[in-house]
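2024-03-11 09:14:02 INFO worker-7 job=invfold-0412 stage=load source=structure_tokens
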């Protein structure tokens, strides 16, 4: 009789979860360039309320895009973002409310602001 051994193959998750790694959190944080809304409010204090709301909406969209890209592997961020959400030209032509829906930002804009194009300069 032959002696045979049974082997069992098990898939394992990553050894360190993303939430527990201080090093990965620091990398993610360095990638995310966050702009405080307080700075925006001070910068556009003299501007009309409508213009300020449009600027805040654009900043929210930029932050959301940066957060999404930070979850992708380095060097593939733009390509993977384009595959899932669309090209940069397409995003620039979309309305603010459409982008809020696409990026799953839970905020409703006024009707006159919702149709404004994103046009990231």
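2024-03-11 09:14:09 INFO worker-7 stage=emit residues=121
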């Amino acid at each position: 009789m032959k002696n045979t051994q049974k082997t069992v193959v098990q898939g394992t998750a990553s050894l360190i979860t993303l939430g527990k790694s201080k090093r990965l959190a620091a990398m993610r944080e360095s990638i995310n360039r966050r702009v405080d809304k307080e700075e925006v409010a001070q910068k556009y204090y003299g501007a009309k309320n409508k213009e300020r709301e449009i600027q805040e909406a654009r900043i929210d969209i930029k932050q959301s895009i940066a957060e999404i890209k930070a979850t992708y592997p380095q060097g593939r961020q733009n390509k993977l973002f384009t595959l899932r959400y669309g090209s940069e030209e397409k995003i620039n032509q979309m309305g603010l409310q459409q982008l809020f829906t696409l990026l799953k930002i839970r905020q409703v804009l006024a009707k006159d602001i919702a149709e404004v194009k994103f046009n990231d300069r």
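2024-03-11 09:14:09 INFO worker-7 stage=report msg="The mean pLDDT is 77."
2024-03-11 09:14:10 INFO worker-7 job finished
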